[in-house]
Amino acid sequence: MGRRIPVRFVEYFTKSEASLLNPQENEPTTIRPQQEAKRSSDSGQDIPSPTVGIPMGPQGPQSPYHRKKTGRKGAECRDRWRLGVEMLAFVIGVIGLFALIQTLRETRRATDTMHGQLKIMDEQLLEMRSSSADAKAAAEAAQRSAVVAEQALILSERPWILATYSIAQPLTFGEDGKVRLELNEILENVGNSVALDVSSQLDIVPLAPERGKFWQPALSRQKEFCDGDRHPHPQEVPGDVLFPNRKQGRPMVMGMGKERIEEVLSLTHPGTDGQKVIGFAVVGCVSYRASFEPWGSTRHQTRVMYDLAKLVETGGIRSHVVPSGIHQELQLWQTNWGNSAD
User: Fold this and answer.
1) How many CB atoms lie within 10 A of CB 188?
2) φ, ψ at 281 (rounded to 5°)
3) Are strands 195-206 and 280-290 parallel, antiparallel or unpaired?
4) Where are the alpha helices (DSSP H) in the chain?
5) CA 213 remoteness from chain centre
6) Cα–chain-centroid distance for residue 96?
7) Model pTM?
């Protein structure tokens, strides 16, 4: 003889089995008195009166205490989840902070390394500049040495012309008021190569009457015709050829007109004896070029300047003479000015 099972338990287990298949239907159920009475009348069985207003759950009726406990557990679960999320966010933030600090350190280290490299590059640049300056100075020194060596070779191999003069006919004042002087010229090549286009010029120039300026007119005249003879004219006839250790000579005649003599005398003060006197200088130059130098190049020159004077009893010399007659007492005295060789 079996025991009768109340209807609500059958429905409960049936619903519980269905809820396993459909979790969404697993919700607390409250059985109303009207529904329970209807099921009792329909089945014709004696079903105990249900508990009015008590919700039903998977384990049976749920009391208010049970609902409160379940809500508290849900809140605790949500709090734990919130705490976990916050802790996770904190950990991620700490990790990000450490990563940022490490990145900044690496950046600073890279910056320091770059600054060090820039400093090394600056030092290398300074060294390169210094090396470049040293190389430039060495190149300039080498160039100067080459120029000096070339000049030394040229000076040792080029021709050198020595010019000497002596009086052939003494200074003579003619009856027409002009003055005349004849000299012997001797040119000697004392160098090691042939001298080409050899030419020479001489002139007699009156000394200035003012003290301290005696030689100024003579120097100006020498510069005038010697500078003009540095570069030969294209239509100029080539000069003589003079071989090494050879000499050549020729007479040189020069003079001055009456007007020029009177002009100088007009600026001269009479001496103690009441007479006016005049002095003369002889200036000249020899121009030539080396055989290895092209035509038209700047020519070498030997410049000379003599004082036409007489020896006096006191041991000195006197340049001024009376402007008349023949003055055989006059000699050529080389001065300290106007003599050069290049």
Assistant:
1) 17
2) -130, 150
3) antiparallel
4) 7-21, 33-43, 64-157, 216-228, 258-266
5) 50
6) 52
7) 0.58
CB-CB contact of 46 with 27 (8 Å): no
pLDDT in tens, 168-190: 999 999 988 899 999 999 999 99
Nearest to 231 by CA among 193, 284, 304, 287: 287
Sign of torsion, CA 261 263 268 274? positive
Closest by CA position to 204, among listed 264, 279, 263 = 279
Nearest Cα neighbor of 225 from 200, 247, 245 is: 200
- C-alpha R_g of the chain: 67
Which sequence spans correspond to the domains of the chain? Answer: 7-62, 74-157, 161-341
> In whole angstroms, what is the distance from residue 22 CA to residue 16 CA?
10
Closest CA to 31 of 4, 53, 62: 53
What gap in Å lies between CA 214 and CA 339, rounded to an integer?
16
pLDDT of 223-254, one tens digit each?
998 998 888 777 777 889 999 999 999 999 99
